[in-house]
Amino acid sequence: MNAWACPNSRCVYDKMLQAGERCPLCGEEAREFKFSELDVLWRRKWTYKKGLEEAKKREKVLASVKFCPKCGSANINVLAFYRPSTWKCIDCGYEGAFILEDSNLAEKIRERYRVRRQG
Questions:
Q1: Which residues are registered as beta bridge partners of 100?
Q2: What is the pLDDT of residues 35-67, one digit of tens each?
Q3: pLDDT tens digits for 64-73?
């Protein structure tokens, strides 16, 4: 006997469907699978789902990381514990209250800083 499931490997819906039924998440029409094929499909879906979860975890960690606005480095410390709004970059020596929390912007600053130092 064969089973019907969503054929989209990038869809996280992993429940059985009826013939002609559409997936409630991605809208693709269910397809008939042999159980050996279904096992491969569910592994792909599981891998994709875990990848999404890992990406969310990385985003959450990167959101809490602070970056230097001058060189884009994450190698920064609080300058004085009694004044926690003042930061010091270990790499370039920047001292100030302004700090970045956007990893994409920090990457652009890091590349621009690297080009300036080489040129």
A1: 67
A2: 888 889 989 999 999 999 999 888 887 667 899
A3: 789 999 999 9
Q: List the one residue out of 44, 35, 27 whose CA is nearest residue 4.
A: 35
Q: Are 72 and 107 in contact (CB under 8 A)?
A: yes
Rounded to two decimals, what is the model's pTM? 0.50
| Sign of the torsion formed by the C-alpha atoms of 69, 71, 77 and 83 | negative
* Helix, strand, coil abundance in the chain, percent, nearest 5: 40, 20, 40
**C-alpha R_g of the chain:** 24
Nearest Cα residue to 29 out of 41, 16, 20, 42: 20
Backbone φ and ψ of 89, nearest 5°: -90, 130
- Residue in 3, 7, 47, 45 with CA at minimum distance from that of residue 27: 7
Alpha-carbon span 111 to 108, nearest angstrom: 5
Domain ranges of the chain: 3-59, 76-118
- Interior angle at CA 18, CA 14 and CA 22, nearest 5: 70
